[in-house]
Amino acid sequence: MINRTNLNNSLRVILDNWDDEIDGLEKDIYKVKDEGKDEYYKRVNELKDQKSALQEQVDSIQEASEKGLEEIEEGLEKAKDKFKDTLEKAKNLFADEE
Fold first, then answer.
1. Domain ranges for the chain
2. CA dist 54 → 3, 29, 35, 92 (Å)
């Protein structure tokens, strides 16, 4: 049985970490050459969209059934992998500009 409180707390920690990652990318945008900025902004916006999708899952935890909680937990792993992949792509764009 999944503990709603623990799942909720875990998701909130992840969201806070994602906020920090996104903030860091936004602070470093000035270092990217003009021709790379569009792609960089695209990646940052993808990360924001992914964060919003996870936030929606957090908001639904209290109303979710046990099966729904399991689906949220499974979706969390996919969301973390996707966020990590997009984050790496954005950082690689930044690294290519240095």
1. 4-97
2. 18, 24, 31, 24
Rg of the chain's alpha carbons, rounded to an integer? Answer: 16
pLDDT digits (tens, 9 = 90+) for 25-40: 998 888 887 888 888 8
In order of 3, 29, 58, the CA distances from 88 in angstroms are: 31, 15, 24
Is the CB of residue 57 less than 8 Å from the CB of residue 18?
Answer: no
Q: Is 89 exposed, middle or buried (0-12, 13-18, 19+ CB in 10 A)?
A: middle
Q: Which residues of 14-31 are buried (b: 16+ CB within 10 A; e: fewer)?
A: bbeebeebbeebeeeeee
Q: Is the pTM of this model over 0.85?
A: no
